Amino acid sequence: MESNVPTIAEASIDEACRCIAGLCSPLEAEPVPLTQASGRCLRDSVVAPEDLPPFDRSAMDGYAFRHDDPSIRFVVVDRLRAGDWRPRALRIGEAVAIATGAALPSAGLQVIPRELVIEQEGAIELRQRPNERYIRRQGEDAHAGTVLARAGTRLNAGILALLASLGYTQPRVARKPIVWHILTGDELVEPDQVPGPGQIRDSNATLVRALLAEHGIVPHQIRLPEDEMTCLRALEPVRRNEQPVDLLLCSGGASVGPHDFTRSLLTTCGFDIVIHKVQARPGRPLIVGRRKSALAFGLPGNPLAHFVCLQIYVRTALRAWEGVPNPEPCWRTGRLAAPPATKSAPVETLWPARWQVTPTGMVELEPLPWQSSGDLTVLASANALIRVPPHTINWEVGTLVRFLPTDSVS
């Protein structure tokens, strides 16, 4: 481990996120076609290669004539559709029929909507003449060289449409990280199996796959018995650098019980532990390791704790690798619609909640009941995590709180 990376025995939420973001430089850039770029983050800013629009064009279906022409009646000398390019100078008393988006034949013109004229055979007569010229001017959207999308922008449908209009068909984005996910726990069975006595269905594999899918990542998942040597053998290709890996996730075994060997497993695989624990619940027994540019997370096995750690810490790493300028969680502020049933805790609590914007534009949060870090039922309604400071009791309705939406990637 490099000497400038500190080891944190017990990190706060913000310390952990800063540390993780600092460990993850953007991955190498690669060009991808527009059809595969949705949800990815730009690595290079995109500038307008030319004025937008590139020429003066009509904003309406109508007729174009000289702006300095005082005539009321005009002879129609041409008809222009979008895509036509027929420059010509118009004389007094001449007009051209023109479609929306069509290039104007010359400068100094005015367009009048067709509903404001009386159309006659080969001519028109004005009903009225508004001051509006109904022209979309060259460069009115953007001038050549204007930055249209900055590096770090997540590509959505609108931005992809803009890139397509510019002929920018191979945007450069960070490559997707290679992710291995190790699951342990002798009490776990597959979701389609009936649990035996003392067993439960595994939810963490689905949780990890679903969160990574939001970033377009398909992990290599391995389910293993709760045995350190078996897990080490499975990770031999990683330990020997025979298989590349950017992110190693280990579900379960992150605590300090006699069967919790994740810390030892990561160390044996060459990872230096940089975070041993976090000062927050659920998800306190989080382990973060680093080996060169690769990162490893020892995630607590309880599913709600798993969800919290993925949303806050793992997503910070993924966003940093994508090249997002500020990859740490974007905490927002809202008002409590109801008080959480808090009990004084010595560490910060990440409380599942439901957030919404009221008809008056107020952001309100409804804290949801949950029983323990193993309670998954709350996730059926939760779309946010509220930060509850240590030793907090008796919060009142209307209290301003910080929260993280969990229903959005960006």
Protein architecture, described:
The structure is a single chain. The protein is α/β, with parallel strands linked by helices. The chain has 4 domains: 13-27 and 176-322, Molybdenum Cofactor Biosythetic Enzyme, Chain A (3-Layer(aba) Sandwich); 34-51 and 141-173, Alpha-Beta Complex (Molybdopterin biosynthesis moea protein, domain 2), CATH 3.90.105; 57-136, Beta Complex (Molybdopterin biosynthesis moeA protein, domain 3), CATH 2.170.190.11; 332-405, MoeA, C-terminal, domain IV (Beta-clip, Beta Barrel). Helices cover 17% and strands 27% of the residues. It is built from 7 helices and 26 strands. The chain has helices spanning 13-23, 157-166, 204-213, 228-234, 236-239, 262-268, 303-322; strands at residues 29-31, 46-47, 57-58, 62-66, 73-80, 94-98, 109-113, 117-120, 123-126, 135-136, 147-149, 172-174, 179-183, 188-189, 200-201, 220-223, 247-251, 272-275, 280-281, 287-291, 294-299, 332-336, 348-357, 363-367, 384-388, 400-405. A hairpin with a 2-residue loop joins strand 20 (287-291) and strand 21 (294-299). Helix 1 (13-23) packs across helix 7 (303-322) and helix 3 runs parallel beside helix 7. The chain is elongated and about 90 Å long. The model has no long low-confidence stretch (mean pLDDT 92).
